[in-house]
């Protein structure tokens, strides 16, 4: 039971990683002069679109162990709208956090906002897909001993690693190496992406490694 | 021996201060020196080389110029003369450079770009050490060989007008002088008219050989209003007029005497974009050097891009021009265009003299000098020269000989250039032995601190320090003997001078005793720790106390910051590290508040808030009500709210607290852009200080002073409250008096004074408040056993310091002070009290905020950002001790005030912490401050040949040393206040026993 769960998790994560890699490789066939550094904003949009769509696909594929409650269409629509609003709110609040961290207020607004978008793609979107627009559940998952399944556990790990990646990505900015990727916000977005991918890789391994110790309240 | 952890920490930091002092003395090297004593009778000049024989031209060549006038304009940047400003405001100088008989250069000054080391460099031709900055303010007489001394020895009559530093550097050298003091930065007309008023008379007289004028006005304008101020234009025009006056006077004199004279225009250093100087940016380093003389060729040339030379080249050139021996320690090379029109034989002779002097200096300072490329080139040039002289004496002067001569001259020039480069590189020679001793002392003290950390974290108030057994152990004596032996061996074998060896034997022996005693203490502490841990493992399993997220962040952040000090960019942009860490801390705190608000800890929060008004209210009760509130978020405390709604308010305030702090930090960050990358970007501070926004600045300053009053008066007694209010009004009056601010009823500019009366008025209140605070503190320690009295006393001391800071900070920095108080209030009310952090965590948070505020204020790890004007507030003559104290306090306002707040907070919360909170906080503070210093010392030692060692790492080292000194003082004060408990307990037990 647990082993199969972990396997599913692993496949799902591989899909997500694949989408990130695809967003790097695929556009160069269609767009001229595409590269992550030069046309960074385009890449940001494409990457976040890919990741969102993969997450949605994973969400729509019915999971074997969750008994899907039949609910009315209007309920689904409001839920979807709520999710959209949550996503936007998270984008804007992340933008505010970046500005508080010292991002320029007036210049580079688009860059900062797209960074907020991609970071919320890596963090908020999986949360929305898995937990729904339910703040209580979010807080529960992100506190000590609050996780109830391996899915939530992996969600915790990927989200935290994305944030940590973005946070670490800010470190090279003051260095005087004069590299193109030191420009705001490229190092941070790259950091966030690496953090996300690392989280995707690490979490199944970590869960597999600790499968004996992990006991969830519901299991 | 048992020691309170406060006493222990304070003594450890004191020992570290000693170690850092020894390290600094070894790290900042003495400059390249000639070993022959300077007072010594001048040795004969090197004779002209002649192949196969000895030349009969052994005397020094005759002077090229009969008179020399040096016009030194302080902080004259190269673009003030060569750039568009020069063309606009200095038309005569531009004419001279373009069409007159002149040679213009850009002379590169070496950091530190501060006046005194630069004057030394100009006159001795050597590079003074970095430590000269510290000695800048009281310059003792110059010991090294220099042009002025040589001129005096040659019987030249010299006259000096201008900066007093010269008179101190060259006492009794001038037949006539008038020194003006440079310490009133806001005065920029009188300092210069004091110089110019003598000019008329002196130029008419002919009884002098050298006239030196040092104009300070431009530098003062730069400090006060920056390089783009319109005042700069006026000043440059004034200087241009003076140059014209001097030049025409010299021309008329020349017509009488028929011998050419020399006019030198130079600057000692440049001026950064903020108008300051001290660092190594291009604006600070590039200074113009214009030589004008009728002996020069008139050649129209491109004056936009003059040749780049070294500032040290002037000394050699002046010496040759005036027929003097070149100063022994000079590392400069002759500016060749000056002698270009002399006969070839003379030219070569000059170059040879310069080469001999440089190669002699190289021989005395570099063991392997023979392999130096410069030296090899020089030997070759000397041989060619000898041949040339032989040919010259034999045959008549043909064109081929001239060609050969030019070749020799070229060879000489390249040799000179290589030699002087090699010498200037050689300046960085370290006294490794002293550095090692200092490092060992610091590391030992740090190890002791680290070893006792587990005990302190387990809330033990007193530490077992095994002091007496090691003092009598065999190990101690062995160590002492070994160290003494090493000392003797090192000092007898060392070739270069070593500071530690020059100490008297008793002092060195004392240091040895200290080192070996510390080592023995560490050894026995380690041994005991090992034994303890085996005992513990037997008796109980380890109680695994998990770190909280905030605790982990504090630990990781500190480690990360310490590691970042190894990269020059991170040192330059250290403010970014602190802002980043403080922001992350706020986010972590916000996450913690969220969690305790929404989940689980619901019981704890309301409980805390019920107790809160009791503790704060106790103090506020005696005073009027409105005063109790912080302007933001404090509404919750207001009287008649129903308690349920009130609790809700407070909880929301708790949630919003970290975000408010974040917003405040963001605002402060845009107030002063510091560091290297950000310094040029426009910021609010620049906008406010520009002349056209005086009204806005005045409003902002008044508002900030109001906020400061509202927040600082809360904990004071009534008398101090009144004193604080009057003092803050006095601060505003002071700033109006010196012309920074405006009264609303006096919008037109009025006369600017030094504001001595107003500043002293404020000082009276500062001293009054501090005195009241000290009195209350002593009372609480000796007579009254009440922590409330102590809390009030500490707050009074704190608000006295706030008032002093308000006086010293520049008006556009007053919001920094206001926000500092505001953040302290928010953090205290809504974060530290409800969340009940550990003492160690609170201490580290205070330290982080203190560091961030150090940079918010506009400081950086660059000497140039020190606001020296703080040292002259309220003083009408320069007094070294008060000026130093005020400047240091003005620079370290942030860390000092946050440490003061920490003391007050712990005392106010004495009920929720254990009795030993204060001394444990002192320990943590000592530890957190000494870890970066110790690490940095090791890093700097390993990076001592780094390219940026002088421009980036050395200033930071000075800052770190100063910070450690301040930490030591703070720790001593902490320990003194935390002694209360002990003395009182002692008195009580004594009473009980009787
Ligand atoms: Zn100067
Ligand atoms: Zn200056």
List keywords for this structure.
heterodimer; A: about 220 residues; mainly alpha; 8 helices; B: about 1000 residues; 8-stranded mixed β-sheet; two-stranded antiparallel sheet; 38 helices; 10 strands; globular; binds zinc ion
Structure, explained:
The complex is a heterodimer of chains A (219) and B (994). Chain A has helices at 2-25, 27-30, 40-60, 73-100, 109-131, 135-141, 150-169, 186-209. Chain A has 219 residues and is mostly helical. Chain A has one domain. In chain A, helix 1 packs antiparallel against helix 8 (186-209). The longest helix of chain A is centred in the middle third of the chain and has 28 residues, at 73-100. Chain A is globular. The N and C termini of chain A lie close together (11 Å). Chain B is mostly helical and 994 residues long. Helix content of chain B is 62%, strand content 6%. Chain B is built from 38 helices and ten strands. In chain B, helix 10 (217-225) runs antiparallel to helix 11 (230-257) and helix 27 crosses helix 33 (814-835). The radius of gyration of chain B is 33 Å and the shape is globular. Residues 540-544 and 601-643 of chain B have low confidence and may be disordered. At the A-B interface, helix 4 and helix 6 of A face helix 24, helix 25 and helix 27 of B. The structure holds zinc ion (ZN) (2 copies). One zinc ion binds next to helix 10 of chain B. One zinc ion (ZN) is lined by residues 75, 219, 223, 277 of chain B.
Number of strands of chain B: 10
**Poorly predicted tracts of residues of chain B:** 540-544, 601-643
Summarize the main sheet of chain B. 8 strands, mixed
Helix content of chain A: 55-70%
Number of helices of chain A: 8
What's the β-strand tally of chain A?
A: 0
The proportion of residues forming helix of chain B, as a percent range, comes to: 55-70%
Beta-strand proportion of chain B: 5-15%
Euclidean distance between termini CA atoms of chain A: 11 Å
Shape designation of chain A: globular
Q: How many domain regions of chain A?
A: 1
Overall mean pLDDT of chain A stands at: 85
Mean pLDDT of chain B: 82
Pfam families (chain B): Phosphodiest, PIGO_PIGG
GO molecular function (chain B): CP2 mannose-ethanolamine phosphotransferase activity
GO biological process, one term (chain B): GPI anchor biosynthetic process
Subcellular location (chain B): Endoplasmic reticulum membrane
